[in-house]
Amino acid sequence: MERFGIPVAVKNVPVLDPGFIPMLKFNRAFLEHAKKPVSVAVERADGQMATCHTFIHGTAEMAEADRYYIERLVKTLLWMKGGYKVYVSGDEGICDYLKQVFSAEGERAFDWDFMARIFEHPFEVVLCDKVPESKDCPKAMGGHLEGCRIGFDAGGSDRKVSAVIDGETVFSEEVVWLPKINPDPDYHYEGIVSALKSAAAHMPRVDAVGVSSAGIYINDRTMSASLFLKVPPELYESKVKDIFIRAITDTFGNVPYAVANDGDVSALAGTMSLNDNNVLGIAMGTSEAVGYVDAEGRITGWLNELAFVPVDANPDAMRDEWSGDIGCGVKYFCQDGVIKLAPRAGIELDESASPAEKLKAVQKLMEADDPRAAQVYESIGVYLAHTLAYYFEEYHFHYVLLLGRVMSGKGGDLLLDTCKKVLADEYPDVNGKIELTLPDEKFRRVGQSMAAASLPELG
Predict the structure, then answer these.
(1) Cα(180)–Cα(169) distance, rounded to whole angstroms?
(2) What percent of the chain has pLDDT above 70?
(3) I need a surface site. Which of 43, 78, 128, 365 has the fewest CB within 10 A?
(4) In whole angstroms, what is the distance from residue 449 CA to residue 123 CA?
(5) Can you tell me the distance from the alpha carbon of 185 to that of 177, in angstroms, rounded to the nearest whole number?
């Protein structure tokens, strides 16, 4: 296969998606003959920086390929690390192109607006002589079990809370709620406070509170979260951004607290169950939710929103309805990926059914050993192998913890087995450095809310 006239060699191709071009394979083929140095850096909160020194061809014949490569690279940095300011050095034309693409009228208008909102700063692209070097500020967070702690896990359909004393869960509760359809932030606030008080009633005191929730959290503030989807913008600013902070301090006063993305907390639960660090957690459910705990056991502060990182260079890849982009992880590593591939395998799905119901229909066929369903999971396993090799270049993780409803049952087992085989065959250099794992009983005992309780450090 080829892209922009560049031949891309791929040994293992998904049987249901023969046009799939792994982004890593395209990048490596592109860079074989690219000799002109170009650097980009993306700035995010507190002056942190994600920097990449790379190359383009710099010729008129390869201009389209150059622009595509750099745009995909910047898009990857934005959603993997986060940022509102892009620095470019080495090519003024590339800088001008990025200014046009990442603008209110450009192809990446969604990314331009989203990053500006969550970082509360206008998005800009600037040309410079030399880009700033990478700067991270990872935080040691989690694994603290001493004292009387509350862990709160805010899910989209239920909320879970645990009371934990010196590492032992003495109380846990799961309550159904409907945050995604409720426009009144007081509904959310009261639900959070109710859960905190319920756990506090089972301990002599409250020393710390940790919160796990889907969304983007910067300095414990809710910058974007699907839980508050229906809350009007004017109320979001005044009542949602600090909602967890307010709920905790209003209820318990000045106790230590921490709010983290649920993907990061899942990865933290993985480190607690594995007794080791350097874990990338990928939950394949409604979307692709990702978290990462580094080799020192720290949460990096990166966005880790890999659902919107490009993984496929195929120009005919499926488009994501939310961001308007094509070839991003959300259409490959969640229930949408299963739903996309099922008709290609000859499986007719009820179009009036919900996405979750469609997934269940394919899972039911898989449990009955239907070869069509097997092709779906084998194809996702091939996707995953190529993409993990791509993720590895930036994260250098050791463990990959695979979670979510797509990974359940026989389908998940086949997906995992296929992924391992493709990694060994196509990326032997990477395969020997990573270990794929599924949640075990120890992980389930740790649980999301208990891992959340361990987030804050006392004193």
Answers:
(1) 28
(2) 99
(3) 128
(4) 35
(5) 13
